[in-house]
Amino acid sequence: MPPQQSAEPSAAPAETPFLDLLATGAPAEDFERAVLRARADGASPERLAALERAKLLALRVRTELEGRRRREAELSALYETAHDLAGLRDLDAVLRAIVQRARSLLGTETAYMTLNDPVEGDTYMRVTDGSVSARFQQLRLGMGEGLGGLVAQTARPYVTDSYFDDPRFQHTRTIDTGVRDEGLVAILGVPLKLGSGVIGVLFAADRRVRVFDHAEIALLSAHAAHAAVAIDTANLLAETRKAMTELEAANEIIRDRSGVIERASDIHDRLAELVLRGGGVQDVAAAVAEVLDGTVEFTDAERVPADALDRSRAADGHAVRDGDDWVAAVRSGSEVLGALVLRGHPHLDPVDQRTLERAAMVTSLLLLARRTAGEAEQRVRGELLDDLLDAPDRDPRLLRERAARVAADLDAPHVVLAARIEDPAGDGAAPAATGPDGAGATGRQRLWSAASHLAATRQGLAAARDAGVVLLLPLGRDDEPGEAARKAARQLGAAVHAPVTVGASAPVPAPAATPAAVATAYAQARRCREALRVLGRCGQGAAAEDFGFLGLLLADGRDVDGFVRRTLGEVVDYDERRGTDLLRTLNAYFESGMSPARTKDTLHVHVNTVAQRLDRIGRLLGPGWQSPSRALELQLALRLHQLSAALGE
Known about the structure:
Layout: H1 16-24, H2 28-40, H3 45-86, H4 91-106, E1 110-117, E2 122-129, H5 134-137, E3 140-142, H6 146-154, E4 158-160, H7 173-182, E5 186-194, E6 197-206, H8 214-276, H9 281-292, E7 295-299, H10 306-314, E8 320-322, E9 325-332, E10 335-343, H11 350-390, H12 396-405, E11 414-421, H13 439-457, E12 461-465, E13 468-474, H14 481-496, E14 500-504, H15 516-534, E15 541-543, H16 551-554, H17 560-578, H18 582-591, H19 596-603, H20 607-621, H21 628-648
Parallel strand pairs: 14-15
Antiparallel strand pairs: 1-2, 1-6, 2-3, 4-5, 5-6, 7-10, 8-9, 9-10, 11-13, 11-14, 12-13
Helix pairs in contact: 2-3, 3-4, 3-8, 4-8, 8-9, 8-11, 9-11, 13-14, 17-21, 18-19, 19-20
């Protein structure tokens, strides 16, 4: 019987079981089991050695295949990342996507990005993902500080498996505190590069010790390269959108300018037509209002805010803004005739502003033309007032007829005003007449022109007299002579640009019926005017009733009751309503030398009662009632009141 031959020569090649394992993607431990089974089956040493060699070769092949599969997965992930980033347009969205994908690619606990600040010369935290520390999220790193500062400065990747134990980085208190708050240990940072420049740093980090291998560094670097391009693209898109927005705004301005120019041409033609056909001031205002799409009105100088009018006049009539309104002064040389006011139009185009100013110039021309035509009427008014002052025996019927020609009603109540221009130097003297071209004559001429204009607008009369002017103006039912004088002082002073002192008479009920009363009233008005000048109140206006007890000397009617009423009326009314003794207390107070202690003895009351009554009197009479001048008026009024009460009994 022939000897039995060994089965090993006919056995399968040693590589066969490992090829099957490679084909099925078996884990590494399955390759070791193939060797163990052969050893258990009694394989020869030669067979076991062959299997061991085949195992090692298969494991190397398996490692290579796994590396290629991983690189394929990484390349696929990078492709997807690039595709995703290419689809984003908003810079913030791009930055968030970059950081989130970096964390996902490397499987780290956190990822973040810093961007360089060329103005400050450092780098700052821009986006984080997985961060829990507010301090960390607000970090700024100087160039060369910390791992990120070093990456930003050198444009090279840096990695550490234990940040606080790594001496390569410049540790600072601020950075180390932020990193410690976040709990980071292992950090990988790669530069975000555009061309040769670095715009920031992309990080992946873990809160435990971790060694980032070369493949992971390369992967994050490749991701950072895509990210830098995406950031640059997003920035370019943002700049493009901004440029488009600015271009659209410029086009809108051009379209708006075209409309403004058309409106300016339209208003120019309309204003020229108004002048040629003799239109009025209100026609100009209406035309401008229609073109500017607002409310425009011509306003007298005294009804325009003084500050806005002064600013417009100082700017040679240019329109100035006053709150939501625009004001353009209407001037004739240095004289302000009024203003064109555009209401409720706070934002005015410069061309439209010029339109308003041009309308103000046209208004000035129309007013001057009307003034020229009215000079003859002014002479008629002056002659009529001269006759009332100098010829009181004129026929009332003829006076009424002459007044009707200038639209004056001499059967209505009037007030006589005596006005005089003061020396601008402030010495209170009227300007001297230095000849036809002298300053005094010029000032009086301006005052006469302004008074004539005021009389014409108020349907009154004006005449030059006694180095000043006299006006006869209608007096409304609720008007007071003193207020009329103060208003005239303001208007005339503004017109002549110098202080004008105005005295007012008592009301003249019907000048046409009693012409002699006009001359008497003029004398009273002059006394009031001179009293103002003597008292150092030049440039003001007043009537006799405004001078307190001195008014009794200035007034022709000697209105004693009116003086007492103006001085003590509040106290008298209070006593009558409440049944108090304030008037008697006030009298006792003055008779006791203004001593509360002696007053309480006179009245037989407690001193606190006197103090309470005096406090009440002070609130009724107003502050300063115990000053020498007021005390004198009060004492005189008390005497007159007592006298009138005694005479009444």
